[in-house]
Request: fold
Amino acid sequence: MTSGTALSPPSNADTPTAHQRERATTIFERSVAGRRAGSVPKTDVPERSLADLIPANLRRERPPQLPEVSEPEIVRHYNRLSRRNFDLDTGPYPLGSCTMKHNPRLNERVAALPGHARLHPAQSPKRAQGALDLMWRLERSLSEICGLPHVSLQPSAGSHGELAGLLLTRAYHEDRGEERTRVLTPDTSHGTNPASVTMAGYEVVKVATDERGGVDLDDLRSKIDESVACLMLTNPNTLGVFDENITEIARVVHASGATLYYDGANLNAIMGRSRPGDMGFDIVHVNLHKSFSQPHGGGGPGAGPIAVSDRIEPYLPVPRIVRSEGGNGASPAYDFDYAQPKSIGRLRGFAGNFGVFVRSYAYIRSLGGDGLTEASETAVLNANYLLAKLREGRAGRYLPVAFDRTCMHEFVLSGASAKRELGVKTLDVAKRLLDFGFHPPTIYFPLLVDEALMVEPTETETREALDALAEAFDEILAEAESDPEIARKAPYTTPVRRLDEASASRHPVVRQAL
Amino acid sequence: MLDAIGAGSIEELFDQVPAEVRLDRALDLPDGLTETECFDHLAGLAARNAHADAEVCFLGAGMYDHYVPAIVDAITQRSEFLTPYTPYQPEVSQGGLQVMFEFQTAISELTALPVSNASLYEGPSSVASAAYLAIGATKGRRKLVVSRGVHPHSRETLRTYAKGFGADVVEVGLDGGVTDAAELAEAVDTDTAAVFVQNPNFLGAVEDLEALAAVAKEAGALTVAAVDPLTLGVLRPPGESGVDIALGEGQSMGGRLDFGGPSFGFFAATEEHLRRMPGRIAGETTDADGRRGFVLALQTREQHIRREKATHNICTSQALNALGGVIYLAWLGRQGIVELGELMARRTAYARERLAGVEGVELLHEAPVVREFAVRLDAPVDEVLDRVAEDGIAAGYPLAREYPEYEDGLLVAITERRSKEDIDRLADSLGAAIGALRTHTVQKAPIPEEVAS
Reply:
């Protein structure tokens, strides 16, 4: 696949592409009895029958039907599959709320160093001082960026950080002898927020959005009372606008005794310009795979460290990293501390996604404080520029921005006019973008906006790439003015065309029959 | 660009941030580094870690030093797998989606359970995720019974999550290295949502899953087994032992040690739990022209659709690590998974006997083992480990912190990378360290009163 082009791609499916002609074949279907790739070392200890070592009733009778394939076949198979993916290195990926910024390859290189990649998690901290030092430095960096004094790197992803934050909230209130049962989330929140609230044993209460796109203060005041444990907020929020009433929101929440939680999915808008801690947030999660450039890997891995205020600190997960200053010029020593009587406990095995920490730490050190600030400034500049370019063209009429303000790092368009006037839905526009070599924006989110398209270009796209994206939108809408069927049946050039998602859920086939 | 926007400066774009919450100073972080400087700095940190290529590693406890085939790195580092997001647009994500489908098939085969998801974060949190499923599936039962043979990190994670679920966690002890079946039968009742066991358990012992699952089933509770995937070439799979949910840590399948993460968790279950499963699931379908294709199936379970009614809050899976897993399993293949299990079982048996023959070492239990076993040392474990480390050996995982009842316990792990020669070196080094420490202790023994006076 190629990246954005000014030439209109094909809009019919008469001539299937090479990819389309190739039938999807799984690695299991390539299996031929007796073939193999890897081999296991020969036994160098006394040959003993397995029957002497493991009782028959605990042994496996038939081996699992793993593929029988040679190494060249494996390589060719997965290389073929790789070409059936669109990726960030191929073209722009303006997926709102996901911060698809470039992943510097230096970060991959340093993560692969044997001292990192080959370090066993049960190694004695005495013999893993470099790793603990790196984690300590990353904690301190995130503390400074978030404006909150204490950090735990342990959560494995944003949603894991949310669950951690809610369990911290529960521990905090319980320690004060309070039983609170409800958690407030705006109607624009990420789906993970309410899902985490339920997992943490709280009831979700929605807060309305006002006409400026921020939290409706009257609705907030009417819903907050002593049964509320927490308000979860994203700022800038999922509409891409900064909530100007944040100080008042924090005051109202704290007056009721609740905690204020910051979903860090949109931190890329404000690094070095504003800090959640200074806004009054008690708990923040940071998506290292968004703002701090861990590659997304087709859906993971990531990491969701949390930063918290003094009053939440005693409850942080264990183990914590502690540093003791070496006397007489000796370097400081690091250790894991498990003795935290008020801790909520562990959220996972060992000490977190260290490989992710290495990449994000390398990213932070590469950019430095000023570089991070500039990254956020450029992200905001790029989003506003793309919005301006879209407004100049047909998108201004058919896909107007949902809240007409200066945006932060992303913005939300509404496809309601395109649907009404052209008979082309947001889904159709998204699918046609694929033919132009762009990954579409996030669609149908936030739920508040009819036919939503949520666009986040990030700071690593050039002006030329943004212009090409705006032109592609314009061309798709121009096509739709003359023939809406083109978009309705798109895409045409992708390895497969529109897929039947409904039947995949009604009659799920989730494994290969062997 | 500012002209196109109609703004005079970048500053103006940030006007919407109220003055009182603007940071009016530069971030207090070091200046940016060039690529060379940054590499050198990170390499300097890495050099202060004793990694598994720099010593002989008998550490296990859930993550193991297995060989990672070169093709795993070669394929997972391809941009097309490394840099896309979750496959929300299936037409341009067929590669990733098919990998998920293949992964699910491989996990389903290994565990002998019909349905698998496309991965979770890692091992211990997958155990807690199974508890959430079990509470939902058993209509509000609120008791979780967990064997002390389950990884301590998993048990601790389960307790953390259980606070949110409003559930109680009850532990059942070990007898002769394996779960005490009588104590389990006593603990399980009609309020029990699930019984959690591990195979082989944390002390390396092979459990009789079928017998334990039968106890759970009798009370209408689910059986959740954390299993070690690389033992499933030789051990009876959970799906043939009455287990409802099998899950575990995926690191050993082609994953880096990475000081504990990122890796992936796998999660397989009986058919009836498909619609309650956590995480992404790929499903097979067809496109508008009838071509075979793959999509994210059953998305109505998930948080981005179902919000507070979702079956789990998870969004990020571990797609890249799971890709490494399926490449590894294809590389190992149908014969390799059996041969690997057999080799580990034989070497582990050798290592166990060799260590048991060392003065000051005795077996902690005599139950069957495959890849890991526990011993007791007649000298302070931490001091022994320090001395053995001087010989370039990481001897194992000390049990004291998580099993105070085995204060003198050490867990030793074997993989295909630990040769007979390595094992012999370990035995000799352990013997020398214990011997030296015992002499040392004797010298420090209190002087008898009559002599002192």
About this structure: The first helix of chain B runs from residue 2 to 5.
